[in-house]
Design a protein that fits this description.
The chain is of the alpha+beta class. It contains five helices and nine strands.
Length: about 260
């Protein structure tokens, strides 16, 4: 049962007047003020407890909804350092133009293989789709020296060599490739040497230039560069150095 302040005042007045011969007591107002203070204090305590419970409930609900695994971890996602972004190396062209007398056609790029070092022989393996398979080497440094060698008909070795900018490569045909060309994977070897490699000096010392020439002509150096002894010596002197290059493999579309 609840009583209002008016009920309390009436009750105290009646009993006090009866006891004090009908005169209201002097301390009645003090009693009423004290009762008000007590009620205010109780209301404040009740409101504070209610607010604390509400905050705790919201926190619990958020933790249940989010969960510990949904909070992103800043440490698990380190910032990307732009200095670590590596640009892609040289890319072979998308087509290889073939000219066989009056016949001209283009072969699409079917595969490409990339390398990050130069100075040592690299073996490139591929599966031909026709007798006309073509190759082209591209380099970060267009002045780099390139040698490409592959097996030809009757077991002979053939290929091409020169500066990378000159488009070292080539293509086969039914008369030049081995008889088992279409029977499975084939391979070729590629050497790439730095532009400042001592090619002319090694050619002079190994296979010699024509007499009377103070300096080997470029085409003679290119020819000498493909000789096995020259390749072996250059690889030994230069070793393996950083240098990006790629070889593109072209062929007729597989039917």
């Amino acid at each position: 049962m609840r009583h209002t302040e008016t009920d309390l005042r009436r009750f105290l007045t009646e009993h006090s007047q009866a006891r004090d011969h009908g005169e209201p007591p002097a301390h009645l107002d003090a009693i009423v003020r004290r009762g008000r203070r007590i009620r205010r204090t109780r209301r404040m305590l009740t409101a504070g407890a209610t607010l604390a419970c509400a905050v705790a409930a919201v926190g619990l609900a958020n933790s249940l909804l989010i969960g510990p695994q949904a909070i992103p971890s800043v440490a698990a996602q380190p910032p990307v350092d732009s200095a670590e972004v590596v640009e892609p190396g040289p890319k072979p062209p998308e087509e290889f133009q073939v000219v066989l007398g009056a016949t001209k056609f283009a072969m699409p790029l079917l595969d490409s293989q990339r390398f990050d070092t130069m100075g040592a022989a690299q073996t490139v393996t591929f599966t031909p789709a026709s007798h006309d398979t073509g190759f082209k080497v591209v380099c970060d440094d267009p002045e780099a020296w390139v040698v490409l060698q592959q097996r030809l008909k009757n077991g002979e070795q053939g290929g091409s060599s020169g500066r990378c900018k000159d488009g070292v490569g080539g293509h086969g045909d039914e008369k030049s490739v081995p008889s088992d060309w279409l029977e499975g994977p084939q391979s070729m070897k590629v050497w790439v040497f730095p532009a400042d490699a001592p090619v002319e000096e090694v050619v002079k010392d190994t296979v010699a230039c024509p007499k009377g020439m103070k300096e080997c002509a470029e085409h003679i150096v290119t020819w000498g560069l493909s000789q096995p002894k020259v390749l072996e010596r250059l690889s030994e002197e230069i070793g393996e150095r950083p240098g990006r290059w790629a070889v593109g493999i072209y062929d007729r579309p597989v039917k």
